[in-house]
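FYI - complex with NAP, inputs then prediction.
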Amino acid sequence: MKILIFGYQGMLGHELVKVFKNNNEFTLWDRNEIDIADQKDVESKIGDLKPEVVINAAAYTTVDLAEGEGKEISYRVNGEAVGFLAEACKKNDSILIHYSSDYVFNGTNKDGYREDDQLDPINEYGKSKALGEKLLKEIGPEFYLIRPSWMFGASGKNFVETMLNLAEKNKEIRVVNDQYGKPTYARDLAERTKELLELKKPFGIYHLTNEGVCTWYEFAVKIFELAEVKIKVIPVTSAEFPTPAKRPAYSALINTKLPLSKSWQEALRDYLIETKKIRN
Ligand SMILES: NC(=O)c1ccc[n+]([C@@H]2O[C@H](COP(=O)([O-])OP(=O)(O)OC[C@H]3O[C@@H](n4cnc5c(N)ncnc54)[C@H](OP(=O)(O)O)[C@@H]3O)[C@@H](O)[C@H]2O)c1
């Protein structure tokens, strides 16, 4: 299968490359090769290549900066550019796999969010991702729209590394205990993406996370337990830990369409083994 991956140097992109590399004719592009917000370039490059599948892991992911100086670029990359990719894929009969986020929901529903629930983002990043979703659906190439949440992976900044780095310099850490979500291991997400394609699942929206809901505090406690790091972790409220972007309080994504992935605790263990922080 002829596959084109955008954003191959990102956290998820790295895992997609590892997972898809066998038996596929591969093209990998990131910011150095193309700006996905450049419509002409997107159109002509996809038109020349004519891939059967386009996977878009490129995005503007700095959630707090998107509230200020990054706002415009986040709408361009997470919103309008998805429309450009959708147009080009439709024209060339390519399947488009695109990733959105749990942050398209407002986080007030304690039952969690199903694939077809109403979007109502509460920060600019979430709004830009929601715009991308809207354009993708309106333009309507054959697509898989996948929503992950709270991602951690071996390449790139993530919560696990942030916690372990903080633990090296501090005797105690304060972590938010009133935001709930489902941590997602980028490797598992890449593998589940491949499965979706190989099993020729119906096109549409999918929620792909590891299973189990926790708070950032509970996530941190588990990281230190598995990595055998002794540190005092203090639960705090979001109000005590203000950030430029508001976060949804309860953004657990419910997967009603596919077999469930392994638990986030198992996935975290796999990650710590993969990154050689623990043996098993
Ligand atoms: N990380 C999470 O916790 C999380 C949670 C839910 C959903 N998601 C979604 O999952 C997907 C993958 O996220 P990720 O964390 O792997 O992202 P990431 O690590 O930030 O990687 C994104 C990649 O896209 C590239 N890029 C940015 N703007 C571009 C442009 N205009 N043209 C071409 N390439 C561009 C980036 O290059 P530069 O580094 O040079 O900017 C980077 O290599 C995204 O759609 C994200 O919204 C992520």
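Residues 7, 9-13, 30-31, 34-37, 57-61, 77, 99, 101, 129, 148-151, 156 surround NAP (CB under 6 Å). The chain has two domains: 2-153+182-207, 159-179+213-274.
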